[in-house]
Amino acid sequence: MAILLLLLALALNFAISWANAKYVGLYWSESKEVGGSFRAYIVVGYIMAIAGFTMVYGYILLLISPIFLQMAKVDENTILMFEQLASDLIYLFCVITMIPTGFYIWIRSLKHFFERRTLSSGLTAGWNSFAQIHNTISAARNAPSAIGRVSEALFGGKSKKKNDTMVVQLAIFVVILAIFGGYFTASAIMKKADREYDMFADLQERNPECF
Question: What is the 3-state secondary structure (H, E, C) of 48-80?
Fold first, then answer.
């Protein structure tokens, strides 16, 4: 049951990240010309998409890695150490990327709501407020202990064993693999959407008198 819930959460996160990357792509080239806060908003969305895909790929790798480690006859304690370190590294990467960018999106959505005062902008601001507060409180509770475990694993001193070094290397490899997967997936979706949509041409078609 727990695995099923995790897979559902990962599927939802993947869908949200896909939507973010596609939205970013629709305005990527145009945001370079417009610049300012609009460009910052698009770049922030791109970072969020990369982080979202990284989380999905990271936890998928954590689910399948023990199978290969068991086939390689790695002992259970080493596998548990690897899973703990890799999950901590993935979590900290997502915290470092999602919390600051989330604050930017949250503040922008509040500003948009106070300017428009529509139902859709209110729902968006409300959801962003809930998500950002929840993520920030969660990070405040869990990040310090994750940092402590990562520091102990990476800088534990001379008492570290050969297996510990293997665990660190494997965990870092998995995290790097997940980050590259997140980057290339978000970039591919963004570039496809960028090729298929021209914001300026669409605006000209809708409001020819303004051009």
Answer: HHHHHHHHHHHHHHHHHHHHHHHHCCCCHHHHH
Q: Which residues 6+ apart lie within 8 Å of 96 measured at CB? A: none
Q: State the DSSP code for 158.
A: T
Q: Look at the chain and report how many structural domains it folds into.
A: 1
Note down the domain range covering 159.
16-196
The first and second tokens of residue 40, run together, are: 């910052």
User: Does 85 reside within a domain?
Assistant: yes
Over the stretch 135-152, which tens digit does the pLDDT of each residue have?
Answer: 899 889 999 999 999 988
Phi, psi of 64 (to 5 degrees): -95, -20
- Residue 119: band (very low, low, confident or very high) from pLDDT cuts 50, 70, 90: confident
Distance CA 172, CA 65 (A): 13
pLDDT in tens, 64-73: 988 888 888 8
Q: Is 134 exposed, middle or buried (0-12, 13-18, 19+ CB in 10 A)?
A: exposed
Residue 106 lies in a domain: yes
pLDDT number for residue 160: 56
Say which residue, 173 or 1, is predicted with more confidence. Answer: 173
d(CA 175, CA 181): 10
Tokens of 47: 């970072």
Amino acid at 153: A
Angle between helices 36-71 and 76-116 (to 10 degrees): 160
